[in-house]
Design brief:
By secondary structure, the chain is an alpha+beta fold. The chain contains seven helices and 16 strands. The strands form four sheets. The chain has a six-stranded mixed sheet with strand order 3-4-2-1-16-13. Strands 5-6-7-8-12-9 form a six-stranded mixed sheet.
Length: 332
């Protein structure tokens, strides 16, 4: 009895430690389109009679594949899975509703924040959140503005404010202009996000801010490191600035989220404000992870080792995405 009493505090401490870990994730879903044309959108290739021959069977397979990935994110460390998941390349609210109703995700009860954006192909960003862990208090879509440029009219910045573990948390979900656009288009996006970040922090100096998304640039590129000002090392981060743990992940560890011409890039980043990095109470940043499982990679052929995507050219592969998911962990 005496030895059991001695062990009890250790057991309670272990339980408390386990329950105090939270995760936040991001995943580019690579062209999650339904099979129905959306008026005003250039979604024709993802229709049954389009170039991709995008049928209901392929759409259902895509939903099943993506839901499997989302259901497994961080579950080896956090049983409940991510509190919030930012996603990119979703066509509309219909595909998001179909996604969260998949068998693998249904028990989570994920809710959705989504606004229809101006992207010509119709792809948007969205936020999935577990209402048992994250409570949304407000949201908006801030438009991307590039003066006198209609070619790169694209996704806006999804801003979602809420409560996570009792703390005020703001998440900004991004999908910056593609590599088809020149670097200034992404620098312009970074300038806008920095202004948005600065404004939010001025309004609430205690706000814990998370900037995530497919930035179509690596952490060391001008848009992220200079225009947005996200720092590589924790010790460099001053009050009100952003820490970018993925810079070390890519540059020092050689780990990325997409492979192009044999070279890894890491476009899928989750950055945190100094208030999360240096927090003396409440939520605090712990560590990051690129989510890698064998089934997410090509297992043979000339693309062996690349992320296992939905299509190779116009050949349906029945894969997942050309990007890998990313996760950060927060402790309280």
């Amino acid at each position: 009895m005496f030895s059991l009493l001695l062990l009890l505090p250790v057991f309670i401490h272990a339980q408390e430690k386990k329950s105090s870990l939270y995760s936040v994730a991001f995943y580019n879903l690579e062209n999650l389109f339904d099979t129905i044309h959306d008026t005003g959108k250039d979604d024709y290739e993802f229709l049954p009679n389009g170039d991709m021959k995008w049928t209901s069977a392929k759409y259902e397979a895509k939903l099943k594949n993506i839901s499997k990935v989302l259901s497994e994110l961080s579950c080896d460390k956090v049983a409940e899975g991510p509190s919030v998941i930012g996603v990119a390349e979703v066509e509309n609210i219909r595909v998001l509703n179909d996604l969260v109703k998949q068998l693998a995700l249904m028990s989570r009860g994920y809710k959705i924040v989504h606004y229809e954006g101006p992207d010509k192909r119709g792809i948007d960003c969205a936020l999935l959140y577990n209402p048992k862990l994250f409570t949304v208090t407000s949201s908006k879509l801030v438009p991307y503005i590039y003066v006198n440029d209609t070619i790169h009219k694209t996704r806006g910045f999804l801003v979602v404010n809420g409560k996570l573990a009792g703390d005020d948390v703001c998440v900004i979900v991004n999908h910056w202009p593609s590599r088809g656009a020149t670097s200034p288009a992404r620098v312009r996006a970074a300038v806008q996000v920095k202004a948005l970040k600065d404004s939010l922090i001025r309004a609430d100096k205690q706000l814990k801010l998370i900037v995530m998304g497919d930035l179509n640039d690596d952490p060391m590129d001008e848009s992220v490191s200079v225009a947005l000002g996200a720092k590589k090392y924790e010790k460099q981060v001053k009050k009100g600035e952003l820490y970018n743990p993925w810079w070390e992940t890519l540059e020092d560890k050689g780990v990325g989220t997409l492979l192009y011409h044999g070279k890894w890039n890491l476009f899928d980043q989750i950055m945190i404000s100094s208030s999360l990095l240096h927090a003396k109470k409440g939520l605090k940043y712990d560590h990051n992870e690129v989510f890698k499982r064998p089934y997410l990679f090509e297992q043979e052929g000339k693309y062996k080792g690349s992320p296992f995507r939905t299509y190779g050219g116009k050949t349906w592969l029945n894969g997942y995405s050309d990007h890998l998911p990313t996760i950060i962990y927060l402790t309280k």
